[in-house]
Prior knowledge:
Blueprint: E1 2-4, H1 6-25, H2 28-45, E2 53-58, E3 62-64, E4 68-76, E5 83-90, E6 95-98, E7 102-105, E8 110-117, E9 122-134, E10 140-146, E11 150-155, E12 178-194, H3 206-212, E13 216-224, E14 227-233, H4 247-264, E15 268-274, E16 278-284, H5 289-298, H6 308-315, E17 325-328, H7 337-346, E18 351-356, H8 358-365, H9 372-391, E19 394-398, H10 404-410
Amino acid sequence: MSGFSTRAVGYSSASMILLVLSLVLSSKLFLIGGLLTLAMMLISLSFIPRKPKITRILERDQVFEEETSEVMVKVEGKKDMGNLEVFDRLSLGLNLKDSSNCAMLPPGKRSFRYEIDAPLRGYHPVGPTSIRRWDPMWLWFSQGEVDNKQQLTVFPQMVTERSKMVQTTQFQPKPGELRLKRVGIGKEFHSIRDYTTTDPFNTINWKATARTGKLLVNQFEAESITDVMFLLDSRMVTRVGSMVDNPLERSIRFIASAASGLLLSSNRVGLIIFGSSVSVFKPMGGPTALTSILHTLTNVTPSGYNTMGATISYSLPYLTPNVPIVMLSPLSEDPTIREAVKNLLGRGHSLTIISPSGIEFERAVYFGKLTPKYLLKRLSRESLVIDLRSMGARVIDWTPDQDLVKILREVGI
């Protein structure tokens, strides 16, 4: 696309006025002035620089919420006359933290940098790059785009330094064992070390003790045979609040942090997500499990009105017997919650419900006003929580003023 600036309009108007005055007044001076102005504009038009090659380099293409990434844009072209205006487009979910994604550069080999931060998880496009090539007098320009679109993956924020506080207290038998290749309680021999006063006597290696003349004990490889299943409510009702702080975003950050701690302890983590549909991810462990879970959580959007009862009925064949379940839900707008919880508890699953209070987030949107609608919803929710606790479920009410670290401290899976 080509165009012109207001300066070009001014020069054109001046040229036309001078030419008209030269005819009216029969003035050669005005004629020369008008022709020179017009010639200068046409000559400047011929010096629009050629299209350069543009390359973008992302410092990191995968970050967590609130982290930053530096972007470098390289412009490589001929050393022509004229000017280049380069604009690197960004997703609305990204913020400029330092410098600018727009630069005015002379032709040739140039580059500029800027820094972006990502307050909200998701897959955010970076690019394409728009470029305007101006003539030396800033009268004419030619505009186009460079197809160099990239993607910045923003994972949900994790409390990594606190993630180890989520520990499993329930173990279940299943075929095979998961060996951790570290010292712990298990059956497979690991090594021999010196005896300490806290070691039980049945771990003493008497043959090695007799051979060396000092007390030595056996160490064994630790084993883990625990699955934990997370159940995430991603219905439309979970989006109440702000874009970066609502029941769904808090639930996703909790799952990411808790899963990180559980996987570091060599447990296996599964995930069920229900909203417009039901997605079941069987428990998995190992080094790639956390990356897979983070990508899954990053792609979650609030949608749909599936009930918890229908979700549980669909998911039961995929649940390992007696697997502990952690449910993340605001517990609102669903008449099947009681029946679903009763179904899970009746099949021997231990159930922990972490409930970011949707009505409290909604109240915060309206500046904390105590409306009759809010009071009725709060009473209904309190009654539901009491019923669920009486059934045997552990319910943790997560209010907006409580941070993620506090809830992680309170939870023991």
